[in-house]
Fold each of these.
Amino acid sequence: MGNPLDIEFEDMNGEHTTLRALGESNNEQWIVVNVASACGFTKQYTQLQEASVLDGITVVGFPCNQFGAQEPGTHQEICDFTSAKYEVTFPLMSKIEVKGENQHPLFTELSQSTGSDEHTGDIRWNFEKFLVSKDGSVSRFSSKDLPSDML
């Protein structure tokens, strides 16, 4: 496995960046999550936002419309919704595919990790979460796992 912190992706403005570039100099961990606005797990935005203000942690959301078409909005609609409803200030990236033929390389890498439920492979649903450490090691959490249980 390579270091997922250095895999490029696009932000909401179409600019290329990496997880490492989004982190602060004191970052120890990044929470990477595929998000959707119309999912039963959408309320996890609250705990993700709480985690995003902790020292040494950067939360990065990747909108994805692959599961039940639960993220159909434009980039602006997604940002407006998360800001108004959940006061989200952590970065939301460009909408991507997290599984299948057009899976983004970041999620190809992250999907190789094994979760606490012993699952390895494809992302199964919205709000699957990955805790990436500074050294590139990855811990995987299912949609049902709460962000507060990850730290």
Amino acid sequence: MVIDFSTYYDLPSSMDSFFEELWRPSAISQRRMAYPPVNISEDEENIIVASEIPGMDTEDIDLTLNEKSLTIKGSKKNEVGNYYRQERPTGNFQRIINLNIPVQVDAVRASMKDGVLRVVLPKAKECRPVTIAIDEQ
């Protein structure tokens, strides 16, 4: 009879990582998720980026577009108070969205309503699909 112990070889390091996660301060662990969260969609003419940034003024958000990416940057101020629990992230943030197609820089629009930033990036005309007619012979 052969007993296979290979599944237990990594047990000490697995236990170490478990306890490291358990005792990690919450301020560090909350930064693990990307902030601000974004939804990226597209239609035939546009790429649409929608980002949830509640409690922010438009003056506190910087949008930068270059030929390959859109950057959302800002600083969310910490509200003064005695907290029992604080789960909403504060401080500086930056989110970079890589664009895989060229956009019309002069036609980009951004708006903010109810804490949702919406950026509409029109696709460059050379990237839009073209219907080709087929001739019968």
Amino acid sequence: MFTLFFRAMLLYAVMILTMRALGKRQLGEFQPYEFALTILLADIISTPIGSVSTPLLYGLLPVAAVIVVHGALSIACLKSDKIRAVVSGKPTLVVNRGVIDRAALDELCISLSDLLEGIRGAGFQDPAEVGTAVVEANGSISAFPTSPSRAPKTSEMNLDPGYEGMPMFLVMDGKVQPCNLRQTGRDEAWLRTLLDGRGLAVEAVYLASLDTQGKLTVQLMDGSLMRFQAMEPGEVKW
């Protein structure tokens, strides 16, 4: 019984390490060869887990072989567009200038309902607002609005909103995030002093994020919110 438990733990750890080694794309949208790889890995791992009589090596060696083949295939796809087109396929335009291409949908075996679902997933309630839609190689649908339907750009309105980047999450669930804090050029003493000045303790903060305009948004454990200027915009370095 303990042997079966140990084997399952070991192979589970191997599976996690393998997926991490294959890259983060394996955790998102799959390309066709990546989808096949994931199914194959699951089948390879499951055999030695369920059968104690099967040597562990019979599960580990095929995993190593799959990693090598996947690495070679990934490199080949990066180096050659032709190989990538054969292995992963190519994006297909299914809506052009607001007109749905029925022939392209038939070629991809995608129904009109599937297309409308993808368009809604892209944030469009009315397909008439879609000027261009593309079925990507991984099967997802990218949709873009027509010119009259899109929001105006700040440059078109002669506005300069300034730099906008990712906010830094300084506190999460009552715990200081030292890596993010270092990127702001500040230390924990600065953060605690800043919060103490407003009668707040770090342990009472559920989430605190510092945006690129220097404003700190704080949500407390009780759900209340506050926002104040913590840094000058010119001091933002990330």
